[in-house]
Amino acid sequence: MHESRTAEVMLDGVEGDAVIADKAYDSNAIRDTVRAAGMKAVIPSNRSRKRRIRHDKVLYRERNRIERCFNKLKHFRRLATRYDRRARHFLAFLCLAATMLWMR
Questions:
Q1: Averaged over 48-65, what is the pLDDT?
Q2: How many CB atoms lie within 10 A of CB 21?
Q3: Domains identified in the chain, total number
């Protein structure tokens, strides 16, 4: 099941200025949830949408930075395969890996 089906639950209680997502999250329900939370939906329109909804292209480019960061973190095999059983150990290594990427 794609996480767009649970996006409304994930966005419950989240605060911020905008929600940046890809085309898979283009639905009226998600857009309404984002709008109700007082945030801006930066989601490009899906091809199947008859009427295109504009989005902030400059802000959407920031999503690429986040995707590249996740891609670099997945190069650490321990993170990608989730070797650690405890969440605190996983988070500790995630912080270590992020620090290593930052120092490059």
A1: 88
A2: 21
A3: 1
Please give the Cα distance from 72 to 69 (Å, whole number). 5
Residue 66 counted as domain residue: no
Residue 85 lies in a domain: no
The answer, as to whether pTM is greater than 0.85, is no
Q: Which domain holds residue 40?
A: 1-58
Four-CA torsion 90, 96, 99, 104, nearest 10 degrees: -110
Q: Is residue 51 part of a domain?
A: yes
Identity of residue 34: V
Per-residue pLDDT band at 92 (split at 50, 70, 90) = very high
Q: Which residues, at least 6 apart from 35, have a Cβ–Cβ distance to it below 8 Å?
A: 41
